[in-house]
Design goal:
alpha+beta, 19% strand, HIT family, subunit A, 146 residues, 5 helices, 5-stranded antiparallel β-sheet, single chain, 5 strands
Length: 146
């Protein structure tokens, strides 16, 4: 079986699809406690950023920046976390995560031990803004990447 045939991100969207273009897509991951947790996923199977051509690497990073800016414009988070680990799923994807000083793990990583209890009211307030954010993300990604 080839790597692409066994790859979960080749077989499915990988979360709630927000936008899909020819080369990449944006999904919202369903991560408890983090309502604005997104992944920019390269559509074709590639394990590493260096597997892409220079032009495609630039396109991928431009998409990450577009997503980051839209999140900042709508949600005004304390910080944006960017990560491209790929240890569990060796398919090129970037995590773009809105972080708030009140979230359960802040200032630690979302994968670290919680620092405090979750704040359901604040999480719900962020979640209520997601339709507006998704419309803006779709508009900006489509305008730049077709």
């Amino acid at each position: 079986m080839t790597a692409a045939a066994a790859c979960v991100l080749c077989a499915q969207d990988g979360g709630v699809l927000v936008w899909r273009g020819d080369k990449l897509r944006l999904i919202r991951a369903e991560e408890a406690g983090f309502p604005a947790f997104y992944r920019v996923i390269w559509n074709a199977h590639a394990a590493e950023l260096s597997d892409l051509s220079d032009a495609d690497r630039n396109l991928c990073m431009q998409a990450v920046a577009v997503v980051e800016r839209a999140i900042r414009d709508v949600l005004e988070p304390t910080k944006i976390n960017l990560a491209a680990l790929g240890n569990m799923v060796p398919h090129l994807h970037w995590h773009v995560i809105a972080r708030f000083d009140w979230d359960s793990h802040f200032p630690a990583s979302v994968w670290a031990v919680a620092q405090r209890q979750r704040n359901a009211d604040k999480e719900a307030a962020v979640a209520a803004q997601l339709p507006t954010l998704h419309a803006l993300l779709s508009e900006r990604l489509a305008a730049q990447f077709g």
